[in-house]
Design goal:
The chain has 329 residues and is an alpha+beta fold. The chain folds into 3 domains: 7-51, no CATH class; 59-108, no CATH class; 121-328, 2-Layer Sandwich (HIT family, subunit A). The chain is 28% helix and 27% strand. It has 8 helices and 14 strands. The protein has helices at residues 7-16, 59-68, 113-119, 131-147, 152-158, 215-232, 277-286, 309-320, and strands spanning 21-29, 34-41, 44-51, 70-78, 81-87, 103-108, 124-129, 169-171, 177-181, 194-199, 241-246, 255-260, 274-276, 300-305. It has a 6-stranded antiparallel beta sheet. Strand 4 and strand 5 form a beta hairpin. Helix 6 (215-232) runs antiparallel to helix 7. The longest helix is centred in the last third of the chain and has 18 residues, at 215-232. It is globular, with a radius of gyration of 23 Å. The two termini are 46 Å apart.
């Protein structure tokens, strides 16, 4: 970006930054990507707000990005997923333990077409999934995805084969669950806290499987996950946490997201993706019918990317009046 500031003024203000002397941190938000610090410059109070600059997008710069990284430190790995901290400073050395990481990296290798479609920029569409669409098309789609082995990494964790060093809390039994850090949390910034609660039972694929007779179990999950989180992080209080589920979820094994209330609400917490767990509990409690009545009986509205399989194979054909080819899921 080219500056329009006159050169003499630009030179003056640039010389001020090295003179900044820290007084205290005022705030850290956007999951630690932006900070506001109070200090002084030549005895006068000053505020410095710093945030990560935008990534370069030219092919030439992106080509050299992976090889420019230094101090790459793995945080965990499971199946095709791995995540790291790294530095972009080309002058930092591999043994510089004090160098603060510039990047949190996630690696999916080998990735699939589904991964590519998930992360590629695309137009979004709002769809309404009726109980009929769910039972006739979406449920068979879920079954097909599970049959392809897409949940191997989840079962690896639950069954104790991998990533056990990342299991922060575990309860076993009929109401068992595990707490793990989300891939996108740096595990240090409390305002960006994001944990995943994986339930051990395998008969609940998504929020759609929750029934009125399961309210007690869902409440137990919520209570125990909150208790475990504040036990792990005593500086966080119960009313600083919010719990939600995704629909559609990224994978079809029931899990609950536990995040700090100050975590910036991006697209994954937005309407059309996230459903508050307390709202789910309330809906189940007030639902008419017997114990088998549940979330499979309601319409859910959410958004999909145009390159997602659900849009391409279910909702686009329905919109255009074409046949949904269930046998091709």
């Amino acid at each position: 970006m080219t500056s329009t500031t006159p050169p003499e003024i630009a030179a003056h203000v640039e010389s001020l930054i090295p003179k900044f002397h820290l007084t205290r941190l005022l705030n850290a938000d956007q999951a630690g990507r932006r900070i506001a610090i109070l200090g002084t410059i030549t005895t006068q109070p000053a505020l410095l707000i710093a945030e990560r600059a935008a990534f370069p997008t030219s092919t030439a710069q992106l080509t050299h990005f992976p090889t420019s990284l230094r101090n790459i430190r793995n945080l965990g790995a499971n199946d095709i997923y791995a995540w790291f901290l790294a530095n972009a400073n080309p002058h930092s050395s591999d043994d510089d333990d004090e160098q603060a990481p510039d990047f949190k990296l996630n690696l999916i290798y080998p990735c699939t077409d589904k991964h590519i479609k998930k992360y590629e920029q695309q137009r979004l569409r709002v769809v309404t999934e009726t109980p009929q669409i769910y039972s006739k098309y979406v449920r068979p789609y879920m079954h097909a995805q599970r049959a392809k082995g897409a949940l191997n990494w989840v079962y690896n964790i639950i069954q104790g084969r991998t990533e056990q060093e990342d299991v922060m809390y575990r309860e076993s039994g009929d109401e068992g669950f595990l707490l793990l850090p989300d891939l996108n949390w740096d595990r240090k910034t409390m305002g960006g806290l994001h944990l995943l609660g994986l339930v051990e039972r395998t008969d609940v694929w998504s929020v759609r499987d929750l029934k009125r007779g399961m309210v007690g179990w869902v409440k137990h999950m919520r209570e125990r996950m909150v208790e475990a989180t504040v036990g792990l992080y005593p500086e966080i209080e119960r009313d600083e946490l919010k719990l939600y589920v995704h629909y559609q979820p990224t994978y079809y094994h029931f899990h609950i997201h536990i995040v700090h209330v100050s975590l910036e609400a991006g697209s994954t917490q937005a309407t059309g993706k996230a459903i508050g767990l307390e709202n789910v509990i309330s809906q189940l409690e007030t639902m008419a019918g017997e114990t088998e009545a549940g979330m499979q009986d309601v319409s859910l509205t959410y958004h999909l990317g145009e390159r997602s399989e659900l849009w391409e194979k279910v909702f686009l054909p329905l919109k255009e009046g074409r046949e949904v080819k269930v046998d091709e899921f």
